[in-house]
TrEMBL record:
Family label: Belongs to the protein-tyrosine phosphatase family. Non-receptor class 1 subfamily.
Protein name (Swiss-Prot/TrEMBL): protein-tyrosine-phosphatase
Domain Tyrosine-protein phosphatase: start-end pairs: 44-326
Compositionally biased intervals (Basic and acidic residues): 541-565
Length: 595
């Protein structure tokens, strides 16, 4: 647990530094923060340092809190009988997370009055929350009915719908705007309409219109969805979490004169408890002073309303970090006035599910570019210039071709050969103006990607043969067929190689009859042309590749034969053992009959 805590500390600390870089700070702010850091630590910081100095301090403190809360729950008879009723068990997401009866939310409309939710209050901080689980497919109506009856203004969602390929919460809001796409909850006589949304780096904000069909009244509901908080984990940094808390507070959803905010994650105890603990402690610090607040006592008070708040020692550790950081930042005007950049808004872009709205005009397609195949031309300074085929009338030249131009153009179609020769002549002339054209340096060997483009059909067939040969060991009964296929593939590859060799030899003999290269005559004593040398190198490369693939096929064929022999021996051994067992059983049976 020590390594986990330490790693969490380092990751949280690093995230805090990176997040602080995005917040504008002036010299006065930095000096005030440095002076506060040099001053004596408060009680919360002293408690934090004391726990951190112990090797397993956070795990020990967390275990003590759990044991003390369990003893208190048994002494005060905090029961969960309503959640254990047969008709209500299917309404719980987790069988070990149940609401206390004395603080559970009771529904007053419909055939069901139960929902896995508790009203959590902190009188000293004038805070009240409804902590609940992520809605199930059968509890979406109960969830929105609770929001309506409790006069809730905001929903705080601290989890994703899917986490680690596991469903953590059912989608309980409509995905598209407009009344025609509203979510209709006939069982509880409510409708939910999606209005708009705004996305930030770590969270997004959605606005809904909740309408009661019985009274024809409606109410706007804000949902704050924190999207980067992992299950059983902590946010990326205290600063990122505090900015989320600042936005929630700025909406007025946590004010005492409003209905309790609904806070949920997957179970409604881990991440939800962390949010409530940090918010309550920061309110108490602001009201009573930092030295009059005990984080653990606040957590004990919250746990009297809902079991299991704060699920891990890392979440407790992060809560202390966020409280200590929040004491400084929430009094800093630079932080309070800082507005994070909006990543996306449904009013300006597409819908939440990345599908554009039907009433929006799609953006225009990008302009189609002209072909960049060069047309040889010469500038006034003797430099080679390339003009776009479609812009000859404008006569705007492209930039000069650098000396390091790619030679992959050699693999273009034959009708562009003249242009490429002119380009190569210019490059070699620029490099070595005093050197004869026949002594220019040869281009580098082509890469495997270039060979694959030239002989795409050959590589595809060879890849198919490799894929077929990889499946030799799939079934013992198909060993002989696989071996035959390997032999056929090897024969085809050999024949193809011979055919390519003959075609290349023919082309070489034809090239040898021509004694001119790029318009300059070469004697018979001069070295071979670059084109012939390149073809020779490509032929050598292809031959080496074919030989390698043939060797691989032969190796796999040998392995197939060995596996086949092993399988035959195994089957023979099993047959002998089975026959022996059968004979033994018959003998025992005959002996028992005679005796």
């Amino acid at each position: 647990m020590t390594s986990t805590t330490n790693s969490t500390a380092s990751s949280s600390g690093g995230g805090s530094e990176s997040s602080n870089e995005n917040i504008p700070m002036d010299s006065s702010t930095s000096s005030s923060s440095s002076s506060s850091s040099s001053s004596a630590p408060n009680n919360i910081e002293m408690e934090y340092n004391k726990i951190s100095d112990d090797r397993n301090g956070w795990q020990h403190v967390y275990q003590e809190i759990r044991e003390k809360c369990e003893r208190e729950a048994n002494e005060k008879h905090f029961c969960t009988s309503e959640s254990e009723k047969a008709q209500n068990r299917c309404l719980n997401r987790y069988r070990d997370v149940n609401p206390y009866d004395h603080s559970r939310i009771v529904l007053h409309r419909g055939s069901v009055d139960y929902i896995n939710a508790n009203l959590v209050k902190m009188g000293r901080a004038e805070r009240k929350y409804i902590l609940t689980q992520g809605p199930l497919v059968d509890t979406i109506g109960h969830f929105w009915l609770m929001v309506w009856e409790q006069k809730t203004r905001a929903i705080l969602m601290l989890n994703k719908l899917m986490e680690k390929k596991q469903p953590k919460c059912h989608l309980y809001w409509p995905e598209r705007k407009g009344p025609e796409n509203a979510l209709k909850l006939n069982e509880v006589k409510l409708t939910v309409e999606f209005l708009h949304w705004t996305e930030y780096k770590n969270f997004c904000v959605r606005w809904f219109k909740l309408t009661d069909l019985q009274s024809n009244q409606n109410r706007n509901i804000i949902q704050f969805h924190y999207t980067t908080w992992p299950d059983f984990g902590v946010p990326s940094s205290p600063v990122a979490f505090l900015y989320f808390l600042k936005e929630v507070r700025s909406s007025g959803a946590l004010d005492p004169n409003e209905g309790p905010a609904v806070v949920h994650c997957s179970a409604g105890i881990g991440r939800s408890g962390t949010f409530c603990l940090v918010d309550c402690c920061l309110v108490l610090v602001d009201k009573e002073g930092v030295n009059n607040v005990s984080v653990q006592e606040v957590l004990y008070e919250l746990r009297r309303y809902r079991m299991g708040l704060i699920q891990t020692a890392d979440q407790l550790y992060f809560s202390y970090q966020a409280i200590i950081e929040g004491i400084k930042l929430l009094k800093d005007q630079k932080f309070m006035n800082y507005n994070e950049v909006v990543y996306n808004s449904v009013e300006d872009h597409c819908q939440q599910n990345d599908e554009c709205s039907l009433d929006e005009t799609p953006p225009p397609l990008p302009p189609r570019t002209h072909s960049l195949l060069p047309m040889a031309g010469s500038g006034a300074d003797g430099s080679l210039r390339l003009n776009l085929a479609g812009n000859n009338s404008q006569g705007k030249p492209l930039p000069k071709i650098p000396a390091s131009v790619s030679f992959n153009e050699l693999y273009a179609p034959d009708n562009d050969k003249n242009n490429k020769d002119a380009l190569n002549n210019f490059i070699n002339k620029e490099r070595n103006p005093d050197t004869n054209i026949t002594h220019r340096p040869l281009p580098p060997l082509p890469t495997q990607n270039s060979l694959d483009r030239v002989h795409e059909s050959d590589s595809d067939e060879n890849n198919d043969s490799d894929e077929d040969s990889d499946d030799i060991n799939d079934d013992e009964d198909d060993d002989e067929d696989a071996g035959n296929e390997l032999n056929e593939n090897a024969a085809e590859s050999t024949a193809k190689h011979k055919q390519q060799h003959n075609s290349i030899a023919t082309s070489e003999s034809a090239d040898q009859g021509s004694m001119k290269l790029n318009g300059i005559e070469a004697g018979s004593s001069e070295p071979t042309s670059p084109d012939n040398e390149l073809r020779r190198r490509k032929r050598a490369e292809r031959q080496a590749n074919i030989e390698k693939k043939v060797n691989d096929i032969k190796r796999k064929q040998r392995e197939s034969e060995e596996n086949k022999q092993t399988a035959k021996k195994r089957r023979s051994l099993i047959t002998y053992i089975t026959a022996g067992v059968v004979v033994g059983v018959i003998c025992v049976y005959v002996y028992s009959k005679w005796t």
